[in-house]
């Protein structure tokens, strides 16, 4: 075969490959690469969305990190939610999945009961939780009080607002339960039988048979959970607004992150800065912080997956 | 690259990018010249949503269309500032031509950014004498540093609502006129019940619906900014006086924790279970709309209305109050700005239109002529609000380039101070002033 023919064949092959890849390339460029480059660009500009952007150097970065009073509380809250809420969701999701795969009767009923909350719209679910946990009139505190137990302020108390959000997130673990159930049912029975013949305890069977087999699913649940926690916006915003009593109207001020900034998350800052204060530059800085955090967490989880949960693949 | 590393890199990239889709885009628009006599359809965005309000808007638009047969108006309701901001940024043929907002404190942002079109050429063309048409405060909150980008569309005046039955029961014969009297009356009207309350005289915390910092401040003569445009909150003693007064009232009525727990039993501000309607609070600082809302909710007591009490050393200014209202402007991207102006002019300056609309939604009229109109159809108690609206010392917060951000910062300080997180008031006010100045610098 001549070298010209070979080159032509390679070119055609490359073009064919590019053509097959083009839907992904176009999507990636439009929805990922362009926003990323734009965000980096605007983070160095003064830009209100109406007038042409003006170079601002590190001004937006310095403002967000040094002078924007909501940034550090939001970062702390977001990290808290990433660590605690994600861990709770995964543990409860796995726990419920294990329970439902073990029970002999009523599996369908329990599966439906645990899955249904996941279908509740976030705003409606949050409203329901705020009313249930209302420190003055909510049934939860009424029952706790009748039992002589402490009655927390829940969404009205900075110490309890994030645990209350975590409870809301755990209530909606239907998605994780289904994924874990599928993974658990996929673990080869022979491995359990072999382990039982070796005289292992339930915990040892879980630790050395179940967990290694479902580790890719656990990793998936953790990584997607971390991403969801970083995008956590609707529930804390609605909870803060409803619990503070300010749900809109005559233009009066709402306390962001009520109570005491404890429900502020980084996505709320992106919205506040970019879409309410017309400060796209500073909003882009916060978006880039989220980007960096997501990269760090995901890289850490991917690298440590063997050490954390064993290699099941 | 080994398979695992490639997998890791791809997963990291996709995961990270997925949280970054709040992309930063947008474009500015240009004004357009159009023939106001040509047949056209314009779009008007407003924030009202209650059935009676929507009907009042529709009636007003019907009158406009009768007077301007060449202009049809497509009305879109229930629009808040966030939706409005996005539409004004995005532009496009489906966006609004005429816009309105309830948030007067955002006018500085709307004018300075060019989000609302400059109305000066239209006003000049039609030779409208603004000073003779609108009260001074309303003119103040519809412009920013000389840029006139909005006109007032009705206004809101704030006063004191009180439960006359509760007053009678407590032996109080007249509404309080000074802040000291307000505190005394609030204490007398408060009825404890176990570790909570049957009723509080007034919910003084900043989350007590309209008892926010800028509304309280209208009882003191004050200035948010000095002549250099720097924050004045640490220098003007009125602010320290107000914060001290409010904190003492919170403590006198039972303390922040106890009041907040009681507050969590309240119904929402815009519903029938508002604590003033239910008798849980005996006095409420609120806008003129509360009278109609309380009556619609079936409040089973006699409702009294009075101006908000004033600082003890400003007793001669009794009758003043906080003012705000709805503002109306033109989208800069609109290609039908002359037609849009016809609607703005009609709704904001035509006496019959203003009076009918004020009657319809029970707001305070926004022009001198409408305020004096014999066609105003109100409960006699509503006159209190008409008087507040015309009082020379009634006030509204100054505009700022970053809109309501400075008020939010001051309000946040108030939240911290009332619950005792900030001990040193002056130091706290100085830090707040620095933050306000820094935020404004960032917005410039």
UniProtKB/TrEMBL annotation, chain A:
<keyword id="KW-1133">Transmembrane helix</keyword>
<feature type="transmembrane region" description="Helical">
    <location>
        <begin position="21"/>
        <end position="44"/>
    </location>
</feature>
<feature type="transmembrane region" description="Helical">
    <location>
        <begin position="113"/>
        <end position="133"/>
    </location>
</feature>
<protein>
    <submittedName>
        <fullName>Sugar ABC transporter permease</fullName>
    </submittedName>
</protein>
<feature type="transmembrane region" description="Helical">
    <location>
        <begin position="164"/>
        <end position="185"/>
    </location>
</feature>
<dbReference type="Pfam" id="PF00528">
    <property type="entry name" value="BPD_transp_1"/>
</dbReference>
<feature type="transmembrane region" description="Helical">
    <location>
        <begin position="280"/>
        <end position="301"/>
    </location>
</feature>
<keyword id="KW-0472">Membrane</keyword>
<keyword id="KW-0812">Transmembrane</keyword>
<keyword id="KW-1003">Cell membrane</keyword>
<comment type="similarity">
    <text>Belongs to the binding-protein-dependent transport system permease family.</text>
</comment>
<dbReference type="InterPro" id="IPR000515">
    <property type="entry name" value="MetI-like"/>
</dbReference>
<dbReference type="InterPro" id="IPR051393">
    <property type="entry name" value="ABC_transporter_permease"/>
</dbReference>
<feature type="transmembrane region" description="Helical">
    <location>
        <begin position="206"/>
        <end position="227"/>
    </location>
</feature>
<feature type="domain" description="ABC transmembrane type-1">
    <location>
        <begin position="75"/>
        <end position="301"/>
    </location>
</feature>
<keyword id="KW-0813">Transport</keyword>
<dbReference type="InterPro" id="IPR035906">
    <property type="entry name" value="MetI-like_sf"/>
</dbReference>
<feature type="transmembrane region" description="Helical">
    <location>
        <begin position="79"/>
        <end position="101"/>
    </location>
</feature>
From TrEMBL, chain B:
<feature type="signal peptide">
    <location>
        <begin position="1"/>
        <end position="22"/>
    </location>
</feature>
<comment type="function">
    <text>Part of a binding-protein-dependent transport system for a sugar.</text>
</comment>
<comment type="similarity">
    <text>Belongs to the bacterial solute-binding protein 1 family.</text>
</comment>
<keyword id="KW-0813">Transport</keyword>
<keyword id="KW-0732">Signal</keyword>
<dbReference type="Pfam" id="PF01547">
    <property type="entry name" value="SBP_bac_1"/>
</dbReference>
<dbReference type="InterPro" id="IPR050490">
    <property type="entry name" value="Bact_solute-bd_prot1"/>
</dbReference>
<dbReference type="InterPro" id="IPR006059">
    <property type="entry name" value="SBP"/>
</dbReference>
<protein>
    <recommendedName>
        <fullName>Probable sugar-binding periplasmic protein</fullName>
    </recommendedName>
</protein>
